[in-house]
Amino acid sequence: MSSVTGLRPRFKTIYVEHGIACHPRTGKILSRFPDAEIIPVSAYTDVFNRPHQNRRLQQNSQALILAEKKGTRLYPSAPVCQDFGHAFQVCSCVLNCIFDCDYCWLKGMFDSAYLVVFVNWEDFFQEAETLLSTSPLYLSLAYQCDLVPLEPWLGCIEAWASFAKDHPDLWIEIRTKAASTAVWDHLEAQENLIPAFTLSPDEVISVYEHGTPSLSQRLSAVGFCMERGYNVRLCLDPLLYVPDWQKAYGSMLDSIVSMIDLSRVRDISLGTFRISLSYLHRMRAQNPSSALLQYPYESVNGYARLPKQMRAAMEDWMVERLAPYIPQEKIFLENNEE
Q1: Mean per-residue pLDDT over the chain, rounded
Q2: pLDDT tens by residue, 267-296
Q3: Which residues, 6 or more positions from 69, have their beta carbon under 8 angstroms from its beta carbon?
Q4: Where do the DSSP E strands lie in the chain?
Q5: Residue 234 to residue 223: CA distance in whole angstroms
């Protein structure tokens, strides 16, 4: 299944900042959407941050915004993220996602559902080189988006893969829910490029992860990457406290071990749902009928989390069932410091 199917008609409107209107990458992107209405703007924030937006309506008819990223471009990850034993930085060449997951923290961070693409990647590379001059760098490239379904017309993953090939001290993670294998077929597998697949039970996908591929489709993409020699990570995160969660996640694990040789994966990330309290407050206002969002989470250091005993029970249950297939040192849990 290609996650890109039907993507181009979404962009009937494209906003372009004056400052990057003549950038070669802007022209290349615009050429892929010849029927879109082009609207010049002084700054992307004039559209993206304007008041009184309806994010839920915008998600159904996303516009594209082409802009220049100024200021800091690489920054430390949130404290509740797994660090995989590295100094973990994140990069946002793109803001927002074409997928529509109910629990996505971007819905609490941004008032707009429009997709923002920063075209000045050379400035991102320069900042990465500055950080690499002092120490190795571990970078999450798809932190505020899913880049894989955008790759056929964007080429961001290919550009960073080429950069990483020349910088062996740079490790790049590409987290995705997409099942398209086109990008992985096009690129050459390299040690420091990590495809990281978010896996969920079909019960969760059908209710909360709108527009995303099924579990079996994602697992087929995982298998494809492993056969091509990629350094694959599996992300069983976030674990959601849904009705009959043990049955749902047990069925998911059965599918994983039947389709994937877990002894060959790089590692697994595992963590329950957690989110900034300020983001959750905004998401609850957007979707007041969501049982998932309205659940009485605990407040822990500015984050909403499941009660501690519940988190531990879910994580321990998952670790116990993974134990026959993968060493525990390859399972990275969420940061539970309180």
Answers
A1: 92
A2: 999 999 999 999 999 999 999 999 999 999
A3: 92, 93, 118, 120, 123, 124
A4: 13-17, 37-41, 64-67, 74-76, 88-91, 94-95, 100-101, 115-118, 137-140, 170-176, 193-198, 209-210, 233-239, 267-272, 274-276, 298-300, 303-305, 331-333
A5: 11
Only one residue has tokens 């990647």, namely 121
pTM of this prediction? 0.93
What would the pLDDT profile of 210-246 be if each residue is shown by its tens digit? 999 999 999 999 999 999 999 999 999 999 999 999 9
Q: Please give the Cα distance from 179 to 216 (Å, whole number).
A: 9
Count the Cβ atoms, other than its own, within 10 Å of residue 326.
19
**pLDDT per residue as tens digits for the range 110-130:** 999 999 999 999 999 999 999
DSSP single-letter state for residue 92: B
| pLDDT at residue 83 in the model | 54
Residue 214 has a CB neighbour count (10 Å cut-off) of 16
**β 88-91/74-76 pair status:** antiparallel
| CA separation for the pair 191, 194 (Å, rounded) | 8
Quickly list DSSP for 254-297.
HHHHHH--GGGSSEEEEEE-EEEHHHHHHHHHH-TT-HHHHS-P
Secondary structure letter of residue 42 according to DSSP: S
Which of 98, 19, 20 has the alpha carbon at shortest distance from 64? Answer: 98
pLDDT attached to residue 72: 87
> What is the CA 150 to chain-centroid distance, rounded?
12
User: Which two three-digit tokens encode residue 40?
Assistant: 């010049």
- How many angstroms separate the first and last alpha carbons of the chain? 42
If we measure between CA atoms, which residue out of 314, 232, 317, 322 comes closest to residue 273?
314
How many CB atoms are closer than 10 A to CB 40?
Answer: 9
* Token reading at 272: 């329950």
Nearest to 130 by CA among 81, 74, 88, 80: 74
Picking from 52, 53, 72, the residue whose alpha carbon sits closest to that of residue 63 is: 53
In degrees and rounded to multiples of 5, residue 178 shows phi and psi of -75, 150
DSSP 77: P
Distance CA 72, CA 120 (A): 13
